[in-house]
Design goal:
Length: about 230
């Protein structure tokens, strides 16, 4: 495998699948199968999943919610998704630990990087929820932080698109895909793949990021085997 330890960032919106809201059991099962294959191949897996299929703090703030309260609601949404994913992984025969960045016993275990690494080294999946545990930070930033803290070889950003494009491919059919791009180029071209805080954190710590389409089953293993899919940011 190309990497020994990964931090996989999953999109909450992608969990909606064809439903358009909540959690699509078929999409959840697809993610669980792909993660099982990765673990069985010897890859150590940590996961951060967003909560946009349930509640987004920024959207709530735009609709009149207090930003702090809105972000706290978004953190709780990530816990719901993390619990759902842990259940799906257990159905696949994997042991999964849900860690929470804010105290939430007995729903999840308080997060520490040492405990997450210990779980991953045992072949268990560490699902790390609540983002950074603080308002005003996205789950992209939470993912970057956890990738650095758990000494992951790479952060894999599983999205609905198959990489980084010159423009939004869902809005601009003429957009073209990058096979790889540097952080400086991404910032210069104002490509909002991640928020600026997450980008700076990855750049400063030498954390590579691969953006790829996780919704197409089999892509995670293709990425781990070194096939040329997605976009490398370095």
């Amino acid at each position: 495998m190309r990497f020994k330890r990964i931090l996989l960032k999953l999109s909450g919106e992608s969990l909606m699948g064809a439903r358009g809201y909540g959690i699509d059991p078929d999409r959840l099962a697809s993610y669980a199968r792909q993660i099982r294959e990765a673990v069985e191949s010897g890859v150590q897996v940590g996961i951060v999943i967003g909560g946009g299929n349930i509640f987004r703090g920024l959207q709530g703030a735009a609709e009149g919610f207090d930003r702090v309260k809105g972000d706290q609601m978004g953190m709780l949404a990530t816990v719901i998704n993390s619990l759902a994913l842990s259940q799906a992984l257990e159905k696949e025969g994997l042991k999964a630990h849900v860690f929470t960045a804010i105290g939430m016993f007995p729903i999840g275990e308080p997060y520490s990087s040492a405990k997450a690494i210990e779980a991953e080294e045992k072949g268990e999946v560490a699902i790390i929820s609540c983002g950074t545990g603080n308002p005003f930070f996205t789950t992209d930033t939470g993912s970057a932080l956890r990738a650095v803290e758990t000494r992951a070889d790479v952060m894999l950003k599983g999205t609905r698109v198959d990489g980084v494009y010159t423009a939004d491919p869902e809005k601009d059919p003429s957009a073209t895909k990058y096979d790889e791009i540097t952080y400086d180029e991404m910032l210069e071209k104002n490509l909002r793949v991640m928020d600026l805080t997450a980008t700076a954190l990855c750049k400063e710590n030498g954390m590579k990021v691969y953006v790829f389409n996780m919704d197409k089953e089999g892509n995670l293993m293709k990425m781990l085997r070194g096939e040329n899919i997605g976009t490398l940011i370095h």
